[in-house]
TrEMBL record:
This is MFS transporter. It comes from the Bacteria. SUPFAM superfamilies: MFS general substrate transporter. It comes from Streptomyces lunaelactis.
Amino acid sequence: MPPLTLNARPATADPSLTPGAVLASPHVTRLLTGTLLGRLPNAMAPVALALAGTQSGGSLSFAGALSALYVLASALSQPVKGRLMDRLGQIRVSGPAVLINATSLLVLSAVAVADQAALATALVVVAGLCTSPLEASLMIQRVQASGGS
């Protein structure tokens, strides 16, 4: 069996492919703005959960567990939502996911997290499972823009 060798030629980038050229491409600015704004709540939710857990008198370990559950549930559900988006379309998956996520987090804000730990945990898991599938949305937009199916 011959030894594996690496290609000695370095990959060269297209010199006309500048950041300005990429941003000038159709729909890129809209997609980039949408995904950045959509990621803000996803990034802040674990921090807010940790603050809510400790502010209501709960322990730091419980607050950290709530944050970890949210992130874990979100990560585990993303591939499933991506496949559902392939089959059903973006709006039919993203719309209900966003509404359920927002409703769960709003209800959680009215709950005394430390006193009602089981309810708070269930709400966090539901909210995590229903985070917006932004990565899958971007990939579907990219495939559609390139003319693929």
